[in-house]
Amino acid sequence: MTRPDRRPIPGTTPFDGEQARKGYALNKMCFSFNSAQARAEFKRDEDVYMRKYGLGEMQARAIRERDVLGLLAAGGNVYYLAKFAGILGLDVQDLGAAQTGMTKDAFKARLVAQNEQPATLAG
Question: How many CB atoms neighbour CB 31 within 10 A?
C-alpha cells in the first residue's frame, strides 16, 4: 500500500516497513545463503528449504520461477535477493536489469550515462 505522502515510482516496489514485514521469511532465507552449506541444502531440495523458512506461496512460486520482480513484490530486499541471485549465477546488475525491464547491457549503459551527467544542485 502506497502511503499518501509518498509519490509512486513507476515500475518499482519501495522497500518500506510493510514490505519488510511481508518479506521477513524470504529475506531471512536469502540471508542464510551466506553459508555454503545452506546453498547446498537449498540446491538439494528447494521446496523443503523454503518450507524450513516458512515462505508463503507467492514467495515460493517466485523462487521456483526465478521471478525477481515477483520476489521484490513479495517483500524481497534486493540486498538479500542478491544472495539468491548468486546461486543462479546472477549479479546485482542482472537484478537491476530485471527490475527495470532492460537487458543487462542496456542497464549497464544507463548506469554509465547517468554517471556522466553533470552534477546538479538541489534547490
Answer: 16
Query: Rounded distance, CA 82 to CA 31, Å?
Result: 9
Predicted pLDDT at 121:
46
Q: What total number of domains does the chain contain?
A: 1
Find the helix or strand (DSSP H, E) in which 7 lies: none
Regions in the chain scoring below 70 on pLDDT:
1-6, 8-12, 118-123
For position 51, which CATH number holds? 1.10.700.10
The residues, any chain, with a CB within 8 Å of residue 14's CB and separated by 6 or more, are: 2, 6
Give the span between the Cα atoms of 89 and 56, in whole angstroms: 24
Domain with 62, as residue range(s), is 17-88
**Domain contains 105:** no
**pLDDT at residue 13, as a whole number:** 72
| pLDDT score at 47 | 97
